[in-house]
Amino acid sequence: MMNELVVSSSKLTLSFVLAERFFSLKGVSSEKSCNFISASSALPPLWRVKFIDEANDVKEYLPETMPVMEEDETGKRLRWEIGNGAVVTVLLQLPADSDSAQMQLRVERVPENLSVHSIHFPCFNWELTEDDECKLIVPADAGAVYPNPLKNLPCGGDIKTKKLRARAWPNGSLSMQFLAVERDGNVCYLGAHDTSYTVKSFDWECNHEYRQITLNPNWRCARQNAAPAESFPWVVSVFNGDWFDVARRYRRFALTAPWVKKGRLAEGNKTPKWLMEIPMVTLRMHDGAGYSAEDIIREQSYFQVPMLVHYYSWSQDGKFFPTLPSFKPTIKALEDAGIKVMPYTDIYSYDEVNSLWDDLKAFSIQLNEDGGKATQNWAPGWDLTTMCTAAPLYRALVKSYIQRLITMGCKGIYFDEFGMSPPRVCCSKEHQHTPADPTVYLRSSTSLMDEIKREANEEVEDGIVFSSEGAGEPYMDQVDTFLVGNGNNPYMKPLFAAVYHDYVMGFGRYMFFCELTDERFANAIESKNAEQFICGWQFGWNRVPWNIYLEQLPNTVAFLKMLAQVRHEQWSFLTCGKMLRPLELEVPTIQQRWAMAWNDNEGTVVELPAVMNSVWLNAQAQVGIFFVNVTDTPQSFIAKLPSVRWGDPLDVLERSGKENYRYPMPEPLPCRTLQFTLEGRQEGVTSGDSMNGFKVTVQPKSVYMIQVPHQVYYEKYSE
Q1: Which residues contact 703 (CB under 8 A, 6 or more apart)?
Q2: CATH number, domain containing residue 332
Q3: pLDDT greater than 80 at residue 652
């Protein structure tokens, strides 16, 4: 038909149509999958491009005709000439044997009096089904997989009354640049394979009536009259798999990005070894019962592992110097005891009640299009102004006060909001950057961190570490460990760890006071920390000092002590290891009530396996399989070695790029086992074989480990 266009390979078919008024994407499918695009309601236009003039008037253009199509060795070009004379071109590349199509949009011949304001592309409807077999895979902070997303997906309110959800990258709702839908064992993946540090948003609108999500990815463009604008590559794929396969697919792109240029943690080019060996990041206010240096030293003497203290309330005005008089002596007392100090800072936003506000506001705040200040609201009546990290005055102030903290003896700096709060574009003409350039915020923030860290490492013999709130991939080259517990999501899956664990560390799931005092939350502390352990994260945050837990829940703290000591001993796997596919175990599920936020005294009931597990490949090419039993009864099961879910179990463990690990042969394996309990540790060897699985019994509240030797059974770890 004249109003349709079909582009296909042997593994993927994309179909487009000019329906009603717009040219739209109406089909994405493979030979073995259903169509992932919903046509239940009107199809959205494939793209929308907005232009802005000198008077700040914005006008939008859509693809209202069939495109002119040209084809050469680089792919197919779909070309539109729009009403203001500009030309919009979509380059579509789909190799003959590929399951992935790549699309890029470019705007050219922009009139002299106009600038491209923003681009929305590619837009389409994802069809969903109302059952738990349909899943939306979202890299929200640590990661989440929502079964029956129309029922379970958080949308900032009732899904039927507040349908629109903005997912800015990078922030706590989108730590990586992809989304995916899983249906009937197949996955439809949409990824922005962008290394340009462009701030963007994966907006979506849920439609319960039509059982679909309308995707509207968009980003601002630098304000330059007559300048062309283009997108980064967008990749659409359909393949067999689940959340782990999605993570591995994205990892192929991610390992080409500049934020991994310093290499794996095990290579030692970024993160000091002392941080890798620390299993616990404890939270402290400067004042209050249980918060003194003596209390922290007492805690460490109990746990008998290295610790890092994440310090709040050290400043007299809540933001900058001067510090409280007791802060410097506290740093020294803790450092003398071998405990590192990491104070809180926030250079993302600023409270206008601060004493320096009048001096900063004229030269350092982010400005909107109309010249007004950019603000955000974290609580009723608490508006914060977002700052421009490209502004010279603000950069100088930040470098000065962080350098002063390091001079006082701090070995770490925590940057609040960076990976959690949505980045903005700044429209100021006074900050030595192009107004509205969507790459400025991330480039200026990472370069500022680089400058601070470079100077600090010249003074600190054993290295300085940076941390940030939320997992944000473009900060990985600067940040050593992310606070990944902000999501506190009952549908958490460790997507970020599956992509990046061997390149950057993480810590956290929040623990709250009600979980200590309310019997409805029984075992919440144990299971939250067991999940952190199994995901390879450092333990933290705990609002309540460990000494109080020790007084009221001594058995709980004894279990956490055992977990911390195992993590400290096995850091080559749990800190630096590459995550392999977790095992599928036939074990009971349990229900736990977890508090998800500061004021959440009712909690959320989550379902967990009685035995959690994870599988890691360390830099010595050894495979470590870890099991944690969070129940009070022994758990027995058959554990098979990691398998490709959709492949021959005796073929290849994983193959992507240069990765290539082969399965052990189906014969008995002399694999070392370690069982860690509250009473101590016991070594042994596995029973069973790699074809039929190993027979495993994990004792109550304990850790069981199988270590597979690499010399015989796995090829050398290289990539």
Answers
A1: 533, 562, 563, 566, 626, 627, 628, 629, 674, 675, 676
A2: 3.20.20.80
A3: no
CATH number at residue 101: 2.70.98.60
Tokens of 594: 């977890």
The one-letter amino acid code at 678 reads: L
Total domains present in the chain: 3
pTM exceeds 0.70: yes
Residue 428 located in a structural domain: no
Q: What mean pLDDT comes out for the span 180-199?
A: 95
For the ranges 135-149, 672-686, 701-715, which has the lowest average pLDDT?
Answer: 701-715
pLDDT for the residue 144: 93
Domain residue limits at 298: 277-346+396-422+435-575
Select from 198, 136, 246 the least CA-distant residue to 499: 246
The pLDDT tens digits of the residues spanning 385-441 come to 888 999 998 899 899 989 999 999 999 999 988 888 888 899 998 888 999 999 999
Region 141-147 average pLDDT? 93
Phi, psi at residue 451, to the nearest 5°? -65, -45
Tokens of 134: 């349909």
| Same domain as 548, residue 439 | yes
Residues 200 and 236 in one domain: yes
* Strands 200-207 and 212-220, sheet pairing: antiparallel
Task: Based on the fold, state whether residues 411 and 486 are members of the same structural domain.
Answer: yes
Cβ neighbours for 442, distance < 8 A, ≥ 6 positions apart? 170, 197, 199, 423, 474
Positive/negative CA dihedral, 310, 312, 597, 167: negative
pLDDT at 385: 85
Alpha carbon distance 121, 90 (integer Å): 10
Torsion of CA 373, 377, 382, 386, to 10 degrees: -40
Distant-in-sequence, close-in-space partners of 528: CB < 8 Å, separation ≥ 6 = 509, 511, 515, 594
Non-local (6+) Cβ contacts of 669 within 8 A are 686, 689, 690, 708, 713
pLDDT tens across 280-293, in order? 998 877 666 677 88
Per-residue pLDDT, 541: 78
CATH number of the CATH domain containing 659: 2.60.40
Q: Is the pLDDT of residue 550 over 70?
A: yes
Distance from C-alpha of 185 to C-alpha of 53, rounded to nearest angstrom: 48
DSSP 409: T
For residue 318, the tally of other CB atoms under 10 A from its CB is 14
Q: Alpha-carbon Rg of the chain, whole angstroms?
A: 26
**482: nearest Cα among 388, 417, 566:** 417
Say if residue 9's pLDDT is above 60: yes
Say yes or no to pLDDT of 717 above 50: no
Indicate the Cα dihedral angle 340, 517, 599, 143, nearest 10°.
60
Task: Give 62-71's long-range contacts (Cβ < 8 A, gap of 24+).
Answer: 62/21, 62/22, 63/22, 63/23, 63/88, 64/21, 64/22, 64/23, 65/18, 65/23, 66/2, 66/3, 66/5, 66/18, 66/23, 67/5, 67/23, 69/5
At 477 the three-state DSSP class reads coil
Same domain, 22 and 146: yes
Buried b (16+ CB within 10 A) or exposed e, 55-67: eeeeeebbbeebb
| One domain for residues 15 and 154 | yes
Q: How far apart are CA 400 and CA 412, in angstroms?
A: 15
How distant, in Å, are the alpha carbons of 42, 46, 279, 395, 677 from that of 18? 11, 10, 57, 50, 65
48-63 residue pLDDT tens: 999 999 999 999 999 9
Mean pLDDT of the chain: 87
Mean pLDDT of 24-45: 88
Residue type, 353: V
* Separation of CA 453 from chain center: 23
By the 8 A CB rule, do 469 and 493 touch?
A: no
How far is Cα 588 from Cα 39, in angstroms, rounded to an integer? 40
Q: In the structure, what pLDDT confidence band is assigned to residue 622 with cuts at 50, 70 and 90?
A: confident
